[in-house]
Amino acid sequence: ALDIARHQVDGGAQIIDINFDDGLIDGKEAMIRFLNLIAAEPDICRVPIMIDSSKWEIIEAGLQVVQGKCVVNSISLKEGEEKFIWEAKQIKRYGAAVIVMAFDEVGQADNYERRIEIAKRSYDVLVNKVGFPSEDIIFDLNIFPVATGMDEHRKNAIDFIEATRWVRQNLENVSVSGGVSNVSFSFRGNDGVREAMHSVFLYHAIQAGMNMGIVNPALLEIYDDIPKDLLERVEDVILDRRDDATERLLDFAETVKGSKVEKGLDLTWRENPLQDRITHALVKGIDAFIIEDIEQARQEAEKPIEVIEGHLMIGMNVVGDLFGAGKMFLPQVVKSARVMKKAVAYLNPFIEAEKGDKQEPVGKILMATVKGDVHDIGKNIVSVVLACNNYEIVDLGVMVPPEKIIETAIKERVDAIGLSGLITPSLDEMVYLAKEMQRHNLELPLLIGGATTSKAHTAVKIDTQYKNAVVHVNDASRAVTVVGDLLNKKTSHNYVSKMKI
Fold first, then answer.
1. 115-120 CB contacts, 8 Å cutoff, 24+ apart
2. Partners of 470 in the β-ladder
3. Range of the domain at 323
4. For position 388, which CATH number holds?
5. What's 238's domain CATH number?
6. Fewest Cβ atoms nearer than 10 Å: which of 18, 30, 246, 296?
7. How far apart are CA 74 and CA 101, in angstroms?
8. How far apart are CA 421 and CA 472, in angstroms?
9. Longest dimension (CA), the chain
10. Is 337 in the same domain as 379?
11. Is residue 234 included in any domain, yes or no?
12. What are phi and psi of 396, to 5 degrees?
């Protein structure tokens, strides 16, 4: 079980769901033992735990031993308000978040109207009668299979998507989750079609506001890489766009041999130009040929750092664009990061050898991934690029609390602070840190970067909290220029003034 948990975290999981509901084991004892075991595994316990059970005694046993804030999966109105309120109060007492199923005394919500009815009622009870923090409420609005051949199932996906939109717009601060693989259950055994269904469903559900999900990273396809004929048929089914959508997807599925959509081991991309090969490897998370391609790029470049600033940044910008558009998902970005890390590690000795005698650093920069975020690929790239341009880097790593960032910045007398974050909650952490920097009267430039960050959010939410310079850095290739302008006394004032216009 530890190996499975470790594999899931390595694959990009942001929460580990733990369930020991099995007739052949003592679920309570197993839950306690496993939670104690993973507490001693830093590569696993760095992500939150979801305690999952249909038995309250197992949930409570888990709550008593789990470290840090966890999520309880799940409670519902299935057995009435009284029990619902009692369980919610216990969960609140332990400081945990909770998944609330769209289920009441009548049964599971299986259409749009029932989903929003139960969600609204559950929310009102939790917030008004229990005093449960709304930001700790996660609704599972029931993802059911589509393309079953039954008319009553045609709207299963679109009803979930639209209910998600309503919940996120009307119930303040809540999250929406669901078991994504359920949507493709009709095509079990055909992984090619299922991968496409999961990606299409997530693409539309995320745009509607779904911000959590239970999904197997191995069963995800990049949205833009789905064959056009399959994409059209899957979207017809997911969005219920035509009466014969199920039949058309079934016809296509019958032409697929084996578990994949006739992909096989396609190496034709190896015949493409060098930049295209590097970009393909990064987007697909393929590391088999990256050293070979990076060496070719190094031979053709004047300096090894140019390979990072050029070839690799071009590829990572494509990854960032796909992720930002919801066409690529976090587990895939994690694979891209591993390829990038391997490429940079190969180039580092050449970069260091070229430096020769060390010069006096032109500035000292503190770099950190904010509290709650374990992703560091962007931060690491920026650090390498800045270090290669003679900046001293103070790297605090990942999940860094704001007080440590401020304390270190003061102690080390840094010239600027760079913050990185990949997930949406990181945005709030950046806003909070800006407030704290202002409260401590710091006068350091603040650089903001990461896949979920944007110029608009930086300007509206972060810059307004801090009187000194706050700059959104689109990618690592711009970091050197931005930092140089900010730290140059002759250009700094004009640069900041021009940026704020």
1. 115/141, 115/142, 115/159, 115/160, 115/163, 115/167, 116/163, 116/166, 116/167, 116/170, 118/77, 119/163, 119/167, 119/171, 120/170, 120/171
2. 446
3. 268-351
4. 3.40.50.280
5. 3.20.20.20
6. 296
7. 7
8. 12
9. 76
10. no
11. yes
12. -90, 0
Asked if 410 and 454 sit in the same domain, the reply is yes
Active site residues: 373, 375, 426
CATH of the domain at 317: 1.10.1240.10
The answer for residues whose C-beta is within 8 angstroms of residue 331's C-beta and 6 or more apart is: 11, 12, 13, 217, 220
pLDDT, one tens digit per residue, over 281-321 is 999 889 999 999 999 999 999 999 899 889 998 898 888 78
Q: Are residues 482 and 367 in the same domain?
A: yes
End-to-end, the C-alpha distance of the chain in Å comes to 55
Name the DSSP class of 359: P
| Domain end call among 328, 351, 374 | 351
Q: What is the per-residue DSSP string for 139-206?
A: EE-------SS-GGGTTHHHHHHHHHHHHHHHSTT-EEE-BGGGGGGGGTT-HHHHHHHHHHHHHHHH
Q: What is the pLDDT of residue 258?
A: 46
User: Do 234 and 203 form a contact (C-beta atoms < 8 A)?
Assistant: no
Q: Are residues 252 and 302 in the same domain?
A: no
Give the number of domains in the chain.
3
Chain-centre distance of CA 295, in angstroms? 31
Per-residue pLDDT of 413-423, as tens digits, reads 999 999 998 87
Distance CA(351)–CA(364), nearest Å, equals 19
Global pTM reads 0.70
